[in-house]
Amino acid sequence: MKKLLPFIFFLIIAPHLMGQYKPVLFGMRAGANIGWIKPDVEDYKGEGVKFGFTWGFIGEFFLMENYAILTGFNMNFIGGKMEYPANIDGIPVTGQLHRQYDLKYIQVPLCLKMQTALSDKVTIFGKIGLGTSFNFSAKATDKFLDHGSEVTIKKRNIEDDIALMRESLIIGGGIEMKIKGSTAVIIDITYDNAFINLLHGDGTHLPDTEPKAILNFVEVGAGIVF
């Protein structure tokens, strides 16, 4: 009988423990982001930020009350601006190319979410993890300058110049406000830092060049989980 007591005790308290939180939550989110490109090669320069947006779905799988695996998928519309020496089709001379990147990715994040309650209705949280993204569209607006002359090409397809995959470190945090039951509104801020090269091939239409750059962004988002 003594050996059965711990098991009986667990059966009695388990429903109470599970009732304190829902082990799986699903939801949706959207956000606005600011992206920039950081080159890592001589003669390449970042030229400022570009605004974009994100939408996607959320899945939270709780390991215990205050710790969860956060995943889902995001449609990221991000980009940046960069300047570098290049030539373009139909122009046989080398000049400065000012390129604005308009990129679209499907991202699958995998993060650890850690949270603590400030009250019965308000919870704050932090998250850290990795993001794996796949590029499915890459376009650019190019402005080519050569000794005072200027050629602009809008919405140029540059899929051959962009790496298929983007791996990144995700760090963020936010606040969660319960509406009713497990339904809650989430507001968060996320920093997404890539650590592999954005560019594929020469990326410049110049021979013997191996440009390197990473694309980072900061995002402010809002969502709802059920």
Task: Give a structural overview.
- The chain has one domain: Porin.
- Strand 3 (49-64) and strand 4 form a beta hairpin.
- It contains 1 helix and 10 strands; from the N terminus they run H-E-E-E-E-E-E-E-E-E-E.
- It has 226 residues and is mostly beta strands.
- Strands 1-3-4-5-6-8-9-10 form an 8-stranded antiparallel beta barrel.
**Beta-strand proportion:** over 45%
CATH topology: Porin
CATH architecture: Beta Barrel
What structural class is derived from the secondary structure elements? mainly beta
- In round numbers, the mean pLDDT is 87
So how many helices? 1
What kind of sheet is the major sheet?
8 strands, antiparallel, barrel
User: Which CATH class applies here?
Assistant: Mainly Beta
Uncertain segments: 3-19
Radius of gyration: 23 Å
Q: Major sheet: order of its strands?
A: 1-3-4-5-6-8-9-10
- The geometry reads as elongated
Tally of DSSP β-strands: 10
> How much helicity do the residues have?
under 10%
Distance between the termini: 42 Å
How many domains? 1
One letter per element, helices H and strands E, the order comes to HEEEEEEEEEE
